[in-house]
């Protein structure tokens, strides 16, 4: 039995030797808050504030249309190249723009066309609902009898890998999976699943939204051909920041893009009436790039590149490992149960806990009544509280404080002061 005080002193010792501890200074301070929702919306880097001021007042306000030639036209490529470094891809393999959902549509359309004759689309119950909607809508609009099969997992946490293996076969037109799943944080072994697909002669689209910036992703090394991912979570790119897509070099010529628009044209400024796609991954540009939002992604990327994904992953596991250890001792006896993998090898950077009073406990964390700092995790129906540990700014002390707070809320029945009505965005 370790006392809570022992956990607190261990947390301060870990923080004192944490090689990434200084990075919290590079974010706009939120001293009155413990923020554990970086897996939904990352914090604001200080450098983004001055960059945005320059972008808006100088580049847009003063330079106006001249900025396109001075700087803006190459900006998407320049930032995409930094994302490429983060996910182990070539600089010419990442397109940046549009939402994750739209990028998934573009890639999935291309794959279904490429594998025409095969009718099965495989995903799982752990995938993000928007991905499932995109795949359903695509199957419906093609009207060619594609079937989306959503594979069940085994315990709400782990996928059923033998079932997945059976379903990745000669009939499979497309597989779409989240590398780190948004509820349980299960982390797929990308290399192993890629080789299943390769054997079956089919393609996987990996959704990296919860993985990029939190775990090590090596698209090329693991033989991945296609991926999409978002930039407003662990990349700290800002609300609704443009997403990216990855197509391996070998595959770029073979995939058809369903949206033909001028920025994806080989020579957009010739204003020809005939569409001729670019030969590279920028054929996916569906229109003028959103320059301000794209620019805002860079400072967050720089922080991750500077730290290196190996250190980021190490810190992430140190935070979630401490959380799990303290959870077992202080929260399990209070009716909480673990809804994430125990094994760190299969766990991303958030940890989910279930509790029958999950929603109200979450409200009590966010709206404390006794003058302590609010703690912001997030809630997912029906009873899941997700704690996102962002290695660039979260500390071990915050982890232990959160455990103590959760125990107090249940022990003293503080959650009873909150009602069960849900807010629009949780
Ligand atoms: C956050 C997230 C998205 C976001 O999709 P948008 O279309 O960019 O809103 C998609 N997929 C997964 C797995 C996510 O976690």
What is this entry, summarized?
The protein has 426 residues and is α/β, with parallel strands linked by helices.
What would you note in describing this structure?
With 426 residues, the protein is α/β, with parallel strands linked by helices. The protein is built from 13 helices and 13 strands. Helix 1 runs antiparallel to helix 13 (396-411), helix 4 (75-87) packs parallel to helix 10 (298-307) and helix 11 packs parallel to helix 13 (396-411). The two termini are 35 Å apart. Pyridoxal-5'-phosphate binds at residues 99-101, 128, 130-131, 178, 182, 207, 209-210, 230, 243.
Summing up helix and strand content along with how strands pair, one would put the structural category as alpha/beta
Question: Unreliable stretches, pLDDT < 50, 5 or more residues?
Answer: none
Please report the distance between the alpha carbons of the first and last residues: 35 Å
The portion of residues assigned to helices is: 25-40%
List SSEs in N-to-C order. Answer: HEHHHEHEHEHEHEEEHHHEEHEEEH
Total strand segments: 13
- Beta percentage is 5-15%
Q: Give the overall shape, derived from the CA principal axes.
A: globular
Major β-sheet, in short? 7 strands, mixed
Count, helices: 13
Q: Kindly state the mean pLDDT as a whole number?
A: 97
CA gyration radius, whole angstroms = 22 Å
User: Order of strands across the biggest sheet?
Assistant: 2-8-7-6-5-3-4
Give the distinct bound molecules. pyridoxal-5'-phosphate
